[in-house]
Amino acid sequence: MDWIFKDLAASVPQIRHVVLLSADGLRMAEYATDPDNSDPHTAEYLAATCASLQSLAAAVGEMFPHGDGKMRMVVIEVSGGFLYLMAAGARAYLAVMADHGVDAGLLAQCMRDLVARIGEHLTSPPRMTGSPHA
């Protein structure tokens, strides 16, 4: 996945971190634009935080009577930049952290294009509970 995420970061200046996560908050893949200045726990923390965020967004989606209730995209702007979270595939999400100054429309469009191109590969299989031989 590195080359795909690296391509996304090259297409949109100001991206800091890209993480593919499962619905339950596990980091499945990541790319940091500056690995030398990246905390090794950033991807895990981002994945866990985004899992909570997608759950909250799904709850909000249920309040809209004419939709399917599924979270498609969440954008958070804070004083330091942006966090984009997008549904990427079955039980998988794409998270991107970007600095202020990012072209927000370009980033959203590039994320949509990426998911449309390779969304079926951006999935997380269901987790098995218990012993598979039980």
From TrEMBL:
Highest taxon, organism lineage: Bacteria
Domain Roadblock/LAMTOR2: residue ranges: 2-98
Pfam family, any one: Robl_LC7
Matching InterPro entries: Mycobact_SerProt_Inhib_Rv3364c, Roadblock/LAMTOR2_dom
Name of the protein in question: Roadblock/LC7 domain-containing protein
Origin species: Streptomyces humicola
